[in-house]
């Protein structure tokens, strides 16, 4: 017998069992130990929860959605306030507003209602008619320039949505 036998077929399943134990669950935050310890955020878990709250299938009013979002995001932001990543909070803020625009567009349902609501938000009549009768999907229309201008940050602030970036900056200044 020769001592250096090798398999002609690489069997990955064998090597997985021979490795030392590695947890397969995703961590919510991780530390790096270079010069300065940093906390990184795994934003997939928070996005999954936000998707549940802002799901188009859930028949909630806008006020209830915003109330649930504020409650969840206040706690989440307090937990991850130590992380030195303001860009993640800003990106999540933009993404949440887009999700809410999508829910609002879905709630308006009929083209006639969409046109009427866009007109009440101050959109010119021809653009309101054009975007109210569009065949584009909800997610795509949520990123349109018309909804960006009419449902801006001020609109969400008056409806009670708390800004995640402002909350992060507030918590970072205290600690």
What are the main properties of this structure?
175 residues, mainly alpha, 5% strand
Topology readout:
Blueprint: H1 12-18, E1 29-32, E2 38-41, H2 43-53, H3 62-79, H4 86-108, H5 111-120, H6 125-132, H7 138-141, H8 145-150, H9 153-158, H10 164-174
Antiparallel strand pairs: 1-2
Can you walk through the features of this model?
Helices cover 59% and strands 5% of the residues. The protein has helices at 12-18, 43-53, 62-79, 86-108, 111-120, 125-132, 138-141, 145-150, 153-158, 164-174, and strands spanning 29-32, 38-41. Strand 1 (29-32) and strand 2 form a beta hairpin. Helix 2 (43-53) packs parallel to helix 4 (86-108), helix 4 (86-108) runs antiparallel to helix 10 and helix 5 packs antiparallel against helix 6 (125-132). It is globular and about 70 Å long. The protein starts with 11 loop residues before the first helix and ends with a helix. The mean pLDDT is 82.
SS-derived structural category: mainly alpha
Q: Tell me the Rg in angstroms.
A: 23 Å
Mean pLDDT across every amino acid position: 82
The N- and C-terminal alpha carbons lie at a distance of 68 Å
Number of strands: 2
Helical percent range? Answer: 55-70%
The H/E string reads HEEHHHHHHHHH
Overall 3D shape: globular
InterPro entries: Mat_intron_G2 (IPR013597)
Domain Group II intron maturase-specific: 44-117
Pfam family, one: GIIM
Protein name: Group II intron maturase-specific domain-containing protein
């Amino acid at each position: 017998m020769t001592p250096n036998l090798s398999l002609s077929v690489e069997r990955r399943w064998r090597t997985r069992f021979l490795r030392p134990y590695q947890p397969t669950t995703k961590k919510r935050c991780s530390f790096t130990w270079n010069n300065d310890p940093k906390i990184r955020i795994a934003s997939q878990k928070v996005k999954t929860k936000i998707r549940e709250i802002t799901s188009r299938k859930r028949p909630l009013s806008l006020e209830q959605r915003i109330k649930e979002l504020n409650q969840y995001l206040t706690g989440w932001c307090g937990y991850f306030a130590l992380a030195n990543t303001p860009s993640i909070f800003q990106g999540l803020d933009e993404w949440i507003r887009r999700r809410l625009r999508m829910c609002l567009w879905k709630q308006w349902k009929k083209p006639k209602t969409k046109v009427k609501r866009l007109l009440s938000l101050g959109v010119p009549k021809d653009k309101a008619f054009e975007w109210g009768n569009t065949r584009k999907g909800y997610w795509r229309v949520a990123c349109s320039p018309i909804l960006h201008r009419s449902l801006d940050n001020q609109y969400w602030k008056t409806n009670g949505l708390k800004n995640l970036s402002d909350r992060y900056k507030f918590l970072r200044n205290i600690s």
